[in-house]
Each structure stands twice: as structure tokens, then as C-alpha cells.
Amino acid sequence: SSSSDSLFFNVLSKKMYIYGKGTVKFKKTELNSGQIDVDFITSELSARGFKDTSAKKDTGFSETPVLSEDGEVYEGTRLKYNFKTQRGFISMAKNKKEGSRYGGEKVKKVAKNTYFIKNGIYTTCKSDPPHTHFQASEMKVIQKDKIIARWIFMYIEGVPLPLPIPFAVFP
Closest Cα partner for 65 from 74, 55, 56, 57? Predict the structure, then answer.
């Protein structure tokens, strides 16, 4: 663990608090964030950025959580993660891969390679915001395999097509 500001460890409660560009590494997992709390009894990490009204990001936060795990990188505004079970939750998350990206309002990791996404998007467009994308209220991502979604709307230049697709598997 490292920090550009401060790192506090409470021996009695077995908790560590990291402030300012904090980094925590555990096996193949790395977490970077402005604020990180680690509970060694429950094996849970909690991370969030700093409120920043001058931030250029849409979130209004700086130093927001970035979780790297087995070559996958996830960014969000708040994160809770259990480093023993490898399960967790990221709010306002996004993931970029070569040629495609996905993200959503809430991302919940339920198994080593499986994620559920609420109000998610999937796109192959490199622009931000994307020129075209698919949006679904519920998505399931199986890492390095496929994305499964239901009731999908296709958006072109921010305008949804009038007919939804009831079910799809990407790619």
C-alpha cells in the first residue's frame, strides 16, 4: 500500500485508511483511488474520489477508483470490493477493451469472471459520448467471453431507435 498524503492503521480495529492517490495491491488485483479504507477483518475495500467542483470529469470527483484485475480495468465513482471472495460493486462504472467498451450505473461482481450491470451501455465507438451504442436496463458480462442483455435500445447520435431488441448476446 502507498499514498501521496497519509496512511493510518488502527491496530485494534484492524483497519487501514489511505488518503491521496492511494494504491492497494493484492495478488493480481490493484486499486488506485483518492480515498481507500481497508478492513482486514472482513477483507473489504471501500474507495471513493475527492469532491472537486473544478474537476473536468462529469462526476465532479477527482482521483476516482480504478480497479485492475487480470488485465481488466474498471473505473467508477465509488467502489466496494472483497479481496478474498473477489466480489464487489462499482457505481457509475466503465470498462474499455480493444475495439469495445461497456459500463453502467451500477456494476456488481458476483463471480471471478461474471458481472451484472444496471442501466448499462455497450459500444464499439471510440468517441465519448459514443456516436452509436446499445443501452439495456440489465446486462450480464462474462469476462473475455460475451455480454448478455435484454430489452436493448440502439442509440444513434443520442437518439434511441423506436423499437427495442428483446434479447441479445455480444459480440
Answer: 74
How many Å apart are CA 25 and CA 1, to the nearest integer? 7
Q: What does DSSP assign to residue 52? A: -
Question: What are 141-145's contacts with CB under 8 Å, separation 24+?
Answer: 141/102, 141/114, 141/115, 141/116, 141/117, 142/113, 142/114, 143/70, 143/72, 143/113, 143/114, 143/115, 144/113, 145/113
Q: Percent of the chain, pLDDT > 70?
A: 90
Which set of grid coordinates corresponds to residue 46?
471501500
For 22, residues 6+ apart whose C-beta sits below 8 A from its C-beta are 1, 2, 3, 4, 7, 31, 32, 33, 34, 35, 36, 47
- pTM here? 0.68
**pLDDT tens digits for 49-105?**
887 766 555 557 788 888 887 777 888 888 898 888 878 888 776 776 667 788 888
